[in-house]
């Protein structure tokens, strides 16, 4: 019987090749989109899932006076971890982490730059499940000047030698030596903690003893392990008292809050947290969920196509149902047969979908900067899941058509009574078409606003000139020769100027506590963003001054330039006073200097955030971490060659790295770009699949009305009249879909745009354009079948009865 069902199903699919092709192509595209997106979703959801302990990351909310708004940061004060463990029994353990980048290591003649290492407490491996290939978890990080290397790093430094017990040396400005006490398995990609080596944090204790004991600075990340069954909500409620206990002397406890993030949420649930330096491939979990939702919508649209086309063509199979029932077939047997057909069709679509997904993965990996793999044969669970999905899609999309087809009464069918799909069935099909295009229109509107918002952020004037500006990272060693390198480059015709700063614009800059002493007024203590800059930084980046003057060479760190936001904060008690009255007033930290200039507000951070208060100053002894070189137009290749040559001469052991500031800002908005591109692709697929369904229904409609069309043509109807007759019904459905989608899209995009400090407006014409576009797409889709029916010879249709 099953064999007979299979043969019958295959014959029916082959008999209706056009409609079968539409169903298979539509389903396969929907499945392929779902498979690829679900691979991405599963990858994102798997971050840090291999750790088994009850771990939370400790973070702060900082709201000191002077900041325009509170901010969340992924940093904490050094003594917090031990104090939490001492004070609260639910805190079982803690570890602290600090990132080091581009760290130079040497093993005799072999030199290596590791891109990222972590300085950690001895408890790090007791809390996290990073497996050791060699060494002891409990002792490997106990002693100062110890290091654990990953397998790849160990092989690069030692080859086939056993590295345990060997000594490697940091060859930067110091010559710190480390004993290799273990080898770790390479860190999996789905870990927010990425490193090539673990260095003992206790190595730095003697040099940074004051920082380790200070409750005033936030410079590392703390993780705590809670005892099984401990209530994080209960612990969270105790944090105000904890802060008051340890910060009461300074009185700063009221400016801080502490919060805990579960380890599994650190990667995807902390997009609103700044200074998050240790969070690999950080991505908004809401966007991940959005991708999954849209992929499911695309798949549902494909399933709707199948239901529509199957129920529309049900009358053609009425005699088959009548004959089978008259010879004893039961309704459940017929339903099982029709369900078997849909499952077979779904499995055929799955084969095509897997091919599509395999071909699309390289593009998706490039877009997402992930390494997703469709490893069906090495991952049986994935193969079973995808096959199960295809069978489920086949069952769900075929359930209603199967019940409908199997319900035909054999007496009526065999008497020749025409089985009509009925008004209710046509009404259902119309509702499904409206639902399809409503989803497609909604996604079109959303995509346009997402793209416009991203373009607005990328193209809006940030208040400084970043064109042809190249940044080169400096460390303690290369910064020592910055002045000489600046002098060497400045005399070349390819170079417009050279400057330096503590950080690159577009990054989350550091904050600092400062003092302001107004003329004949009390001292004010506040906190604000700061940036150490070279004297010519403002002029080279073309940052405008609204009052005062630039730094002088004799300033020696006692001159401060503040932005307009900070000027307004300092004058909030005297709002009518002009900003220029701040010039010459005492300001600064350690030893006070004076405000010499007020800069026009500029976006030193991404446009997700409002412009915060900030000040700039020049203390050359504190060092710079970024050198900026302004290149003259048309001289890019020449300038880069010159910089590389000078760099190699001065720093033969240091790799030359550079990045255009424009590229840096593209990286800042990388996640937004990814969301925009993925949503655009899924929207395109939704529209295409919806059009496939519309094409099928238009074809069927023209086929069923072929005699009516013949009669109308004989009576004088023109081709235009016939096309309009066949198209009008579907165009009404598309317009209805627009009317439903518009308010939903407006509400959703209004809420989404509220997440941006600098945002576009929701223009009405976008909705009109999308409506027109959807009508044009629908008209183009159905016009082929409509025109084909309209120009057919009426004699052929009227001759057959």
Helices, strands, pairings?
Blueprint: H1 2-15, H2 17-45, E1 55-62, E2 71-73, E3 76-77, H3 80-87, E4 91-107, E5 110-120, H4 124-127, E6 132-134, E7 146-150, H5 151-158, E8 167-170, E9 177-184, E10 197-200, H6 209-213, E11 218-226, H7 232-237, H8 239-247, E12 256-262, H9 263-266, E13 273-274, H10 285-312, H11 318-326, H12 331-368, H13 380-405, H14 410-414, H15 422-459, E14 469-473, H16 476-479, H17 482-490, E15 495-501, E16 511-517, E17 524-532, H18 537-540, E18 545-548, E19 559-563, H19 564-570, E20 586-588, E21 593-599, E22 614-617, E23 626-631, H20 636-650, E24 659-660, H21 661-668, H22 670-704, H23 706-714, H24 719-753, H25 764-790, H26 794-799
Parallel strand pairs: 2-13, 5-10, 7-9, 17-22, 19-21
Antiparallel strand pairs: 1-2, 1-11, 1-12, 3-11, 4-5, 4-8, 4-11, 6-9, 7-10, 8-9, 14-23, 14-24, 15-23, 16-17, 16-20, 18-21, 19-22, 20-21
Helix pairs in contact: 1-12, 2-10, 2-12, 2-22, 10-13, 10-15, 10-22, 12-13, 15-22, 15-24, 15-25, 22-25, 24-25
Detailed description of the structure:
- The protein is α+β, with helices and mostly antiparallel strands.
- The chain folds into 4 domains: 183 residues, no CATH class; 212 residues, no CATH class; 158 residues, no CATH class; 200 residues, no CATH class.
- The chain has 26 helices and 24 strands.
- The chain has a 6-stranded mixed β-barrel.
- Strand 8 and strand 9 form a beta hairpin.
- Helix 1 packs across helix 12, helix 10 runs antiparallel to helix 15 and helix 15 packs across helix 24.
- The radius of gyration is 34 Å and the shape is globular.
- The model has no long low-confidence stretch (mean pLDDT 85).
